[in-house]
Structures are given as structure tokens and as C-alpha cells.
Amino acid sequence: MSDATASEIPTDDVIVDVTDAAIARMHADDLIIDLRDHVVAGGKGGLARPETDDRPKSGRPLDLVEGLELAVLEEEDERWEKAERFVYDTYCEMGYCRPSDRFRVEELQQWNEHSRFHVVFDEDEQVVGTARHIWGNYDKLPVGQFTRTDFIDHDPISELSSLAVAPTARGLGTVVHLCRSVFVEAWQGGANSLMFLIDDWMVKLLADSYVLPIRFVGEAHFHMGGDISPTSMTFTGQEFLDTARRNPHYWRWMTEAFTPQQVADWGLPIVLVDEPATAAMKPAMNQVEQPTPS
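Above: the chain sequence. Below: its structure as C-alpha cells.
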């Protein structure tokens, strides 16, 4: 993020930019996660709330490997068709969908007009990872097939679907980049939350390793190959304070995809650091880089 000007500094409890110590001192200490070396060494800052959970956290993901490109597809062109075939082949192998003469996951085709495909291509234009971003109202999305028990998130919402990665690309950060891309697009597009249909083990991983504010919003049932739970993350800056405090390098990486003005407008927590940290959770990264049946 670039240095903030005085006009970019919000009047509430969070700051826009992360480089100016004087700006940081203007705001409440419990909303600033200051990990800059000179602050920590001087005993004047550090984590706003002491870490009490000793389970390892994901840390900052690695950059995409050289030669990989993340593209957002809006039309059903040749690249979109490649993405559809990739998801279909992956889901068929996992037993998540029925056979199709069109080599598409037919269970998801009705949402194409309300979707964008976020796709990672390699140097040969081959698909190595996908995520489908679907937007609309709860009852009109795939998640609407589940009985809802939590009504906190109002329409419109977004749903992350078709998350899949090639075995050769696992451990390279492909999925976290895809998920961030959908997360940012959904928030920027005015969604009130991002929802998922995922296995319980992935819910636990996102909550424990990434410290994301994910929660169950409906009753689980068998869906496309397994017992799946509808879950959600509410798009409110305060919801991600715990993420910023307990997994600061990851949260800083997430917010780098927003503009300073968006950070200010949405009250997103800010992490102050000197140097980026690389991912420290390769086992967890490998776990999350598995396809999900939605």
C-alpha cells in the first residue's frame, strides 16, 4: 500500500496506511497490529492482543511461481471452456459430479450467467487451478439448496465454488491466490458476505490455520459426493480483527489487494510490518489445495 495522505485517514478507530508511526499513534492501540522491528524492540507495540493459541498459523503466502498467471474470465470463451473442462475432469475423478457429454459440471451450469471464473494458467495456457465466483441472493445460489439457520448476512451475497487445483500445482500457493481474488472481487462488488459449501475439515483449517471468521450458516447434508456444510464470512472490517492480530502477515497480504481508500471506507484492520514474511504452513497449504464439491 502507498503512504496515506491526511485526507485518507479515517475518523474512526482504524488507520489507512501502514508506514507512518505518527499516524499510528493517532488511533486506538487495540486496533493496530504493529510488528515493525523498532516498535517491538522498544517494547512499545507488538501484537495488540497477546497470542494465546500456540497452533501454527499460515503466515504470508508465497507469490505465484514465475510463469503462472491468474486471470478473471467473464465470458464463455476458449479459456472459460478450458476451465470448465478442468473442473469437470477433477470432479469426475473425485466422484463429485455426474458424467456429461459436454465435459462440464452440469450441476453448476445454471449459474454461469452470474459467475466469473478465476483461473490460474501456466506458460502453455493450461489450467492449473480454478475458483468460480457466483453472486446473487442466498435462495438463488448453490448454497440456497441447504436449509438456512443463520440469517445475519443479508442479500446480496457471493459464493466461492469450483475450487480445484492440479496435483502438480499443489503447495505453490495457487489456491490461496484464487481465494483472495474471489474474496476481493466479492467485497469490491458490494456483497455482504462470502459463502462456501465445504467439508468440515476445511472449515476447521480456515478457522485454525488462517484465523478467518468463518461460521456455519445452515444444516449439512450430502451434496455432490460428500457431507457438506454451508458456511459464511461476513464482510465487516471488525470481523477480521482476530485474523489481523493472530495471523498478521497473512492479513497484510490479503489487504494488499485493496486500495487504501477501500481499506478506509470499509474499516479494515491494518498490520504494520517492516518486511514480508513467507508462508510458514506448507502442510496446511497442501491440505487446502484440494478440490471442493461445489
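The first strand starts at residue 32 and ends at 34.
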